[in-house]
Protein backbone atom coordinates (compact mmCIF):
# COMPACT_ATOMS: atom_id res chain seq x y z
CA UNK A 1 0.00 0.00 0.00
CA UNK A 2 1.35 3.41 -0.99
CA UNK A 3 0.54 6.08 1.61
CA UNK A 4 -0.35 9.51 0.19
CA UNK A 5 1.17 12.40 2.12
CA UNK A 6 -1.52 15.06 2.45
CA UNK A 7 0.46 18.26 2.13
CA UNK A 8 -1.56 21.52 2.21
CA UNK A 9 -3.81 21.95 -0.84
CA UNK A 10 -2.96 18.49 -2.18
CA UNK A 11 -4.72 15.14 -2.25
CA UNK A 12 -8.43 14.46 -1.67
CA UNK A 13 -10.39 17.41 -0.29
CA UNK A 14 -13.95 16.08 0.03
CA UNK A 15 -15.76 19.31 0.90
CA UNK A 16 -16.31 22.35 -1.30
CA UNK A 17 -14.86 24.58 1.44
CA UNK A 18 -11.25 23.95 2.51
CA UNK A 19 -9.47 25.40 5.52
CA UNK A 20 -5.72 24.72 5.50
CA UNK A 21 -3.55 24.96 8.58
CA UNK A 22 -1.09 27.84 8.41
CA UNK A 23 0.42 30.43 10.76
CA UNK A 24 -2.57 32.65 9.80
CA UNK A 25 -5.30 30.08 10.54
CA UNK A 26 -4.10 28.41 13.76
CA UNK A 27 -3.45 29.23 17.39
CA UNK A 28 -0.72 27.41 19.31
CA UNK A 29 -1.13 26.61 22.98
CA UNK A 30 -4.32 28.65 23.41
CA UNK A 31 -7.92 28.25 22.25
CA UNK A 32 -9.82 30.99 20.39
CA UNK A 33 -11.97 33.36 22.43
CA UNK A 34 -14.88 35.62 21.50
CA UNK A 35 -12.33 38.35 20.66
CA UNK A 36 -10.73 36.33 17.86
CA UNK A 37 -11.64 37.16 14.28
CA UNK A 38 -12.89 34.13 12.33
CA UNK A 39 -10.54 32.70 9.74
CA UNK A 40 -13.58 31.38 7.85
CA UNK A 41 -17.31 32.15 7.90
CA UNK A 42 -19.85 29.64 6.57
CA UNK A 43 -23.63 29.20 6.64
CA UNK A 44 -25.07 26.56 8.96
CA UNK A 45 -25.25 23.26 7.14
CA UNK A 46 -21.86 23.68 5.46
CA UNK A 47 -19.33 20.87 5.24
CA UNK A 48 -15.71 21.98 5.57
CA UNK A 49 -12.46 20.05 5.08
CA UNK A 50 -9.95 21.22 7.70
CA UNK A 51 -6.28 20.38 7.97
CA UNK A 52 -4.98 19.80 11.49
CA UNK A 53 -1.38 19.62 12.64
CA UNK A 54 -0.10 17.57 15.55
CA UNK A 55 2.02 19.32 18.15
CA UNK A 56 4.33 16.32 18.31
CA UNK A 57 7.50 17.03 16.37
CA UNK A 58 7.24 20.82 16.63
CA UNK A 59 7.64 21.28 20.38
CA UNK A 60 10.66 22.91 21.95
CA UNK A 61 11.90 19.73 23.63
CA UNK A 62 11.93 18.14 20.15
CA UNK A 63 13.95 21.02 18.70
CA UNK A 64 11.02 23.05 17.31
CA UNK A 65 12.16 21.67 13.96
CA UNK A 66 9.79 19.03 12.53
CA UNK A 67 11.97 18.49 9.46
CA UNK A 68 15.01 17.69 11.57
CA UNK A 69 13.03 15.73 14.16
CA UNK A 70 11.20 13.41 11.77
CA UNK A 71 14.04 12.91 9.30
CA UNK A 72 16.09 11.93 12.36
CA UNK A 73 13.62 9.07 12.78
CA UNK A 74 14.01 7.93 9.18
CA UNK A 75 11.16 9.90 7.58
CA UNK A 76 12.06 11.26 4.15
CA UNK A 77 11.92 15.06 3.92
CA UNK A 78 9.04 15.02 1.41
CA UNK A 79 6.90 13.19 3.99
CA UNK A 80 7.24 15.94 6.60
CA UNK A 81 4.25 18.30 6.45
CA UNK A 82 4.99 21.76 5.06
CA UNK A 83 2.42 23.41 7.32
CA UNK A 84 4.03 21.89 10.42
CA UNK A 85 7.38 23.32 9.30
CA UNK A 86 5.82 26.75 8.64
CA UNK A 87 3.96 26.88 11.95
CA UNK A 88 7.05 25.90 13.95
CA UNK A 89 9.12 28.55 12.16
CA UNK A 90 6.60 31.40 12.35
CA UNK A 91 4.85 30.96 15.70
CA UNK A 92 6.00 30.77 19.28
CA UNK A 93 4.40 29.96 22.59
CA UNK A 94 5.40 30.16 26.24
CA UNK A 95 5.93 26.54 27.35
CA UNK A 96 5.50 27.60 30.98
CA UNK A 97 2.15 29.27 30.38
CA UNK A 98 0.63 27.78 27.24
CA UNK A 99 -0.50 24.35 26.17
CA UNK A 100 1.10 22.31 23.39
CA UNK A 101 -1.79 22.02 20.95
CA UNK A 102 -2.10 23.52 17.47
CA UNK A 103 -5.74 24.49 16.84
CA UNK A 104 -7.22 25.37 13.44
CA UNK A 105 -9.90 28.09 13.46
CA UNK A 106 -12.06 29.73 14.56
CA UNK A 107 -14.87 29.16 12.06
CA UNK A 108 -17.92 31.40 12.40
CA UNK A 109 -21.20 29.57 11.78
CA UNK A 110 -23.87 31.95 10.53
CA UNK A 111 -27.09 31.69 12.51
CA UNK A 112 -25.55 30.17 15.65
CA UNK A 113 -26.81 32.00 18.71
CA UNK A 114 -25.89 31.76 22.35
CA UNK A 115 -27.97 28.98 23.91
CA UNK A 116 -28.22 26.95 20.70
CA UNK A 117 -26.31 23.72 20.17
CA UNK A 118 -23.60 23.52 17.54
CA UNK A 119 -23.84 20.10 15.91
CA UNK A 120 -20.51 18.94 14.47
CA UNK A 121 -20.77 15.78 12.37
CA UNK A 122 -17.50 13.96 11.71
CA UNK A 123 -17.82 13.08 8.02
CA UNK A 124 -14.28 11.85 7.32
CA UNK A 125 -10.86 11.69 8.97
CA UNK A 126 -7.84 11.05 6.75
CA UNK A 127 -4.33 10.45 8.15
CA UNK A 128 -1.97 12.96 6.55
CA UNK A 129 1.23 11.03 7.30
CA UNK A 130 2.12 7.38 8.08
CA UNK A 131 3.67 8.06 11.48
CA UNK A 132 3.01 9.63 14.86
CA UNK A 133 4.45 10.09 18.34
CA UNK A 134 3.43 8.97 21.85
CA UNK A 135 4.90 11.20 24.57
CA UNK A 136 5.17 11.93 28.25
CA UNK A 137 6.69 15.13 29.61
CA UNK A 138 6.50 17.74 32.40
CA UNK A 139 5.87 15.16 35.12
CA UNK A 140 2.37 14.52 33.79
CA UNK A 141 0.51 11.30 33.09
CA UNK A 142 -1.19 8.84 35.43
CA UNK A 143 2.08 8.01 37.25
CA UNK A 144 3.87 11.34 37.74
CA UNK A 145 7.25 11.01 39.42
CA UNK A 146 7.23 7.28 38.75
CA UNK A 147 7.26 7.00 34.95
CA UNK A 148 9.06 7.57 32.73
CA UNK A 149 12.25 6.70 34.58
CA UNK A 150 15.54 8.48 34.02
CA UNK A 151 15.40 11.78 32.14
CA UNK A 152 11.69 12.33 32.73
CA UNK A 153 10.73 12.84 29.08
CA UNK A 154 9.55 10.15 26.70
CA UNK A 155 8.80 10.53 22.99
CA UNK A 156 8.15 7.27 21.17
CA UNK A 157 8.21 7.60 17.38
CA UNK A 158 5.51 5.25 16.04
CA UNK A 159 5.31 4.31 12.35
CA UNK A 160 2.03 3.27 10.76
CA UNK A 161 2.03 0.18 8.58
CA UNK A 162 -0.43 -1.72 6.42
CA UNK A 163 -1.16 -5.13 7.91
CA UNK A 164 -3.62 -7.22 5.89
CA UNK A 165 -5.29 -4.12 4.47
CA UNK A 166 -5.63 -2.31 7.81
CA UNK A 167 -3.51 0.55 9.10
CA UNK A 168 -1.92 -0.15 12.47
CA UNK A 169 0.46 1.59 14.81
CA UNK A 170 3.60 -0.42 15.52
CA UNK A 171 5.87 -0.73 18.56
CA UNK A 172 8.82 -2.94 19.48
CA UNK A 173 9.11 -4.90 22.71
CA UNK A 174 12.42 -3.17 23.45
CA UNK A 175 14.14 -0.12 21.99
CA UNK A 176 15.57 -0.91 18.57
CA UNK A 177 13.82 -4.27 18.30
CA UNK A 178 11.49 -5.46 15.56
CA UNK A 179 8.06 -3.83 15.57
CA UNK A 180 6.03 -6.88 16.56
CA UNK A 181 3.36 -5.10 18.61
CA UNK A 182 0.54 -3.57 16.58
CA UNK A 183 -2.72 -1.83 17.39
CA UNK A 184 -5.51 -0.62 15.10
CA UNK A 185 -5.95 3.03 14.18
CA UNK A 186 -9.18 4.76 15.14
CA UNK A 187 -8.59 8.42 14.23
CA UNK A 188 -10.39 11.23 16.04
CA UNK A 189 -9.89 14.87 16.98
CA UNK A 190 -8.99 15.33 20.62
CA UNK A 191 -9.91 19.01 20.53
CA UNK A 192 -13.28 20.19 19.23
CA UNK A 193 -14.80 23.30 20.72
CA UNK A 194 -16.47 26.68 20.54
CA UNK A 195 -15.23 30.01 21.87
CA UNK A 196 -16.05 30.84 25.48
CA UNK A 197 -17.84 34.06 26.39
CA UNK A 198 -14.57 35.71 27.37
CA UNK A 199 -11.91 37.85 25.74
CA UNK A 200 -9.18 35.68 27.27
CA UNK A 201 -7.90 32.75 25.22
CA UNK A 202 -8.17 29.57 27.33
CA UNK A 203 -5.18 27.32 27.87
CA UNK A 204 -5.36 24.49 25.33
CA UNK A 205 -5.05 21.60 27.79
CA UNK A 206 -8.03 21.55 30.21
CA UNK A 207 -11.43 20.89 28.60
CA UNK A 208 -14.53 22.77 29.73
CA UNK A 209 -18.24 23.16 29.00
CA UNK A 210 -17.30 24.73 25.65
CA UNK A 211 -15.46 21.54 24.67
CA UNK A 212 -11.80 21.98 23.85
CA UNK A 213 -9.41 19.14 24.67
CA UNK A 214 -12.09 16.57 25.55
CA UNK A 215 -10.15 13.55 24.20
CA UNK A 216 -13.21 11.34 23.69
CA UNK A 217 -12.14 8.51 21.41
CA UNK A 218 -15.72 7.79 20.30
CA UNK A 219 -15.57 10.86 18.01
CA UNK A 220 -14.55 8.80 15.01
CA UNK A 221 -16.08 9.01 11.51
CA UNK A 222 -19.87 9.14 11.59
CA UNK A 223 -20.12 10.47 15.15
CA UNK A 224 -21.62 13.80 16.22
CA UNK A 225 -20.56 16.29 18.88
CA UNK A 226 -23.07 18.76 20.31
CA UNK A 227 -21.66 21.83 22.05
CA UNK A 228 -23.60 24.58 23.83
CA UNK A 229 -22.94 27.81 21.91
CA UNK A 230 -21.38 30.45 24.16
CA UNK A 231 -21.20 33.41 21.72
CA UNK A 232 -23.02 34.30 18.51
CA UNK A 233 -21.40 32.58 15.55
CA UNK A 234 -20.06 29.80 17.81
CA UNK A 235 -16.43 30.34 16.60
CA UNK A 236 -15.64 26.64 16.27
CA UNK A 237 -12.15 25.16 16.18
CA UNK A 238 -10.50 21.73 16.03
CA UNK A 239 -7.09 20.23 16.68
CA UNK A 240 -5.08 17.72 18.74
CA UNK A 241 -5.45 15.01 16.07
CA UNK A 242 -5.05 11.38 17.17
CA UNK A 243 -4.55 8.17 15.25
CA UNK A 244 -5.48 6.05 18.29
CA UNK A 245 -6.07 6.40 22.02
CA UNK A 246 -6.94 4.20 24.96
CA UNK A 247 -9.50 5.52 27.43
CA UNK A 248 -7.52 7.24 30.17
CA UNK A 249 -4.64 8.30 27.88
CA UNK A 250 -2.44 7.38 30.84
CA UNK A 251 1.03 8.24 29.51
CA UNK A 252 -0.10 11.85 28.77
CA UNK A 253 -0.53 11.59 25.00
CA UNK A 254 -2.04 9.01 22.69
CA UNK A 255 -0.73 8.28 19.19
CA UNK A 256 -0.58 11.92 18.10
CA UNK A 257 -0.49 12.55 14.35
CA UNK A 258 -1.92 15.01 11.84
CA UNK A 259 -5.35 14.47 10.26
CA UNK A 260 -7.42 16.00 7.47
CA UNK A 261 -10.92 16.32 8.93
CA UNK A 262 -14.13 16.83 6.98
CA UNK A 263 -16.83 18.17 9.29
CA UNK A 264 -20.40 19.38 8.84
CA UNK A 265 -21.51 22.30 11.01
CA UNK A 266 -25.23 22.54 11.84
CA UNK A 267 -27.12 24.62 14.38
CA UNK A 268 -29.83 23.14 16.61
CA UNK A 269 -31.95 26.05 17.94
CA UNK A 270 -32.34 26.16 21.70
CA UNK A 271 -36.03 25.17 21.72
CA UNK A 272 -35.36 22.07 19.62
CA UNK A 273 -32.26 21.23 21.66
CA UNK A 274 -34.22 21.42 24.92
CA UNK A 275 -36.92 19.15 23.51
CA UNK A 276 -34.40 16.58 22.24
CA UNK A 277 -31.85 16.51 25.07
CA UNK A 278 -32.88 18.80 27.90
CA UNK A 279 -30.51 21.55 28.98
CA UNK A 280 -27.11 20.49 27.62
CA UNK A 281 -24.46 22.18 29.75
CA UNK A 282 -21.37 20.55 28.26
CA UNK A 283 -20.14 18.33 25.42
CA UNK A 284 -22.60 15.63 24.29
CA UNK A 285 -21.58 12.92 21.81
CA UNK A 286 -23.88 10.88 19.58
CA UNK A 287 -22.80 7.73 17.73
CA UNK A 288 -24.77 5.15 15.78
CA UNK A 289 -25.30 3.19 19.00
CA UNK A 290 -24.97 5.58 21.92
CA UNK A 291 -25.81 8.94 23.40
CA UNK A 292 -22.76 10.00 25.39
CA UNK A 293 -23.07 12.71 28.04
CA UNK A 294 -19.91 13.89 29.76
CA UNK A 295 -18.62 15.02 33.12
CA UNK A 296 -15.57 17.25 33.61
CA UNK A 297 -13.76 18.20 36.81
CA UNK A 298 -10.24 18.40 38.23
CA UNK A 299 -11.29 15.68 40.67
CA UNK A 300 -12.03 12.41 38.86
CA UNK A 301 -14.66 11.49 41.45
CA UNK A 302 -16.44 14.79 40.83
CA UNK A 303 -16.19 14.27 37.05
CA UNK A 304 -17.89 10.90 37.53
CA UNK A 305 -20.67 12.45 39.60
CA UNK A 306 -21.16 15.21 37.04
CA UNK A 307 -21.43 12.61 34.26
CA UNK A 308 -24.04 10.62 36.19
CA UNK A 309 -26.09 13.79 36.73
CA UNK A 310 -25.81 14.68 33.04
CA UNK A 311 -26.89 11.15 32.07
CA UNK A 312 -29.89 11.29 34.41
CA UNK A 313 -30.96 14.67 33.02
CA UNK A 314 -30.61 13.43 29.45
CA UNK A 315 -32.68 10.27 29.99
CA UNK A 316 -35.39 12.20 31.81
CA UNK A 317 -35.60 14.89 29.11
CA UNK A 318 -35.35 12.63 26.06
CA UNK A 319 -37.47 9.67 27.14
CA UNK A 320 -39.45 10.91 30.16
CA UNK A 321 -38.05 8.29 32.53
CA UNK A 322 -38.45 8.94 36.24
CA UNK A 323 -35.23 9.91 37.96
CA UNK A 324 -35.02 6.90 40.30
CA UNK A 325 -35.72 4.49 37.43
CA UNK A 326 -33.14 6.23 35.24
CA UNK A 327 -30.63 5.87 38.08
CA UNK A 328 -31.40 2.15 38.27
CA UNK A 329 -31.08 1.82 34.48
CA UNK A 330 -27.67 3.52 34.44
CA UNK A 331 -26.41 1.21 37.15
CA UNK A 332 -27.58 -1.91 35.32
CA UNK A 333 -26.91 -1.05 31.69
CA UNK A 334 -24.55 1.89 31.10
CA UNK A 335 -20.76 1.97 31.00
CA UNK A 336 -19.05 5.04 32.41
CA UNK A 337 -15.64 5.38 30.78
CA UNK A 338 -12.70 7.56 31.77
CA UNK A 339 -12.00 9.80 28.78
CA UNK A 340 -8.65 10.97 30.12
CA UNK A 341 -6.92 11.64 33.44
CA UNK A 342 -4.02 13.76 32.16
CA UNK A 343 -5.46 17.11 31.01
CA UNK A 344 -5.68 18.96 34.36
CA UNK A 345 -9.48 18.65 34.14
CA UNK A 346 -10.34 14.93 34.01
CA UNK A 347 -13.17 13.54 31.90
CA UNK A 348 -15.76 10.79 32.19
CA UNK A 349 -18.30 9.85 29.53
CA UNK A 350 -21.33 7.55 29.69
CA UNK A 351 -22.41 5.26 26.85
CA UNK A 352 -26.23 5.13 26.91
CA UNK A 353 -27.46 2.53 24.40
CA UNK A 354 -30.13 4.12 22.25
CA UNK A 355 -31.47 0.67 21.28
CA UNK A 356 -32.56 0.12 24.90
CA UNK A 357 -35.16 2.86 24.38
CA UNK A 358 -36.28 1.78 20.90
CA UNK A 359 -39.87 1.34 22.05
CA UNK A 360 -40.02 4.83 23.57
CA UNK A 361 -40.77 7.87 21.35
CA UNK A 362 -37.98 10.42 21.44
CA UNK A 363 -37.69 13.92 20.05
CA UNK A 364 -34.96 14.16 17.38
CA UNK A 365 -32.49 17.03 17.36
CA UNK A 366 -33.47 18.92 14.22
CA UNK A 367 -30.93 21.39 12.84
CA UNK A 368 -32.19 24.75 11.67
CA UNK A 369 -32.84 24.98 7.95
CA UNK A 370 -29.62 26.30 6.43
CA UNK A 371 -29.77 29.68 4.77
CA UNK A 372 -28.99 29.81 1.09
CA UNK A 373 -25.25 29.54 0.72
CA UNK A 374 -23.65 32.81 -0.24
CA UNK A 375 -20.03 33.86 -0.56
CA UNK A 376 -17.89 32.70 2.35
CA UNK A 377 -16.40 35.60 4.28
CA UNK A 378 -12.64 35.25 4.71
CA UNK A 379 -12.73 31.94 2.86
CA UNK A 380 -9.24 30.69 1.95
CA UNK A 381 -8.51 30.18 -1.71
CA UNK A 382 -9.96 26.91 -2.97
CA UNK A 383 -7.18 24.77 -4.36
CA UNK A 384 -7.97 21.09 -4.72
CA UNK A 385 -4.90 20.18 -6.73
TrEMBL record:
Upper classification of the source organism reads: Bacteria, Bacillati, Actinomycetota, Actinomycetes, Micrococcales
Which protein are we looking at?
Acetamidase
Keyword terms, alphabetized: Hydrolase
Respond yes or no to whether keyword Hydrolase is given for this record. Answer: yes
Region (Disordered), start-end ranges: 366-385
> Is Hydrolase found in the keyword set?
yes
Broad EC category? hydrolase
The Swiss-Prot or TrEMBL record annotates one GO molecular function as: hydrolase activity, acting on carbon-nitrogen (but not peptide) bonds, in linear amides
E.C. no: 3.5.1.-
Which species does the entry assign this protein to? Microbacterium ginsengisoli
Concerning Pfam families, the annotation shows: FmdA_AmdA
Amino acid sequence: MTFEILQPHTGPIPADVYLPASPETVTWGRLPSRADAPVLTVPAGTTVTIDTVSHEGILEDQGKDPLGYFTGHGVVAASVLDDAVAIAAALSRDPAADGPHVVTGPVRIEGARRGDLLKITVVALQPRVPYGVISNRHGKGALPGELPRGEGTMSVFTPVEDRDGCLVGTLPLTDGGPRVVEFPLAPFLGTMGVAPDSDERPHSVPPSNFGGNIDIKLLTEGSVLYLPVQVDGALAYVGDPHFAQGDGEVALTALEASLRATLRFDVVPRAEALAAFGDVLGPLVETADYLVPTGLDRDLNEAMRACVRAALALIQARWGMSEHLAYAYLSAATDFDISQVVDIVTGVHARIRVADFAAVPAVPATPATPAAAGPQENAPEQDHT
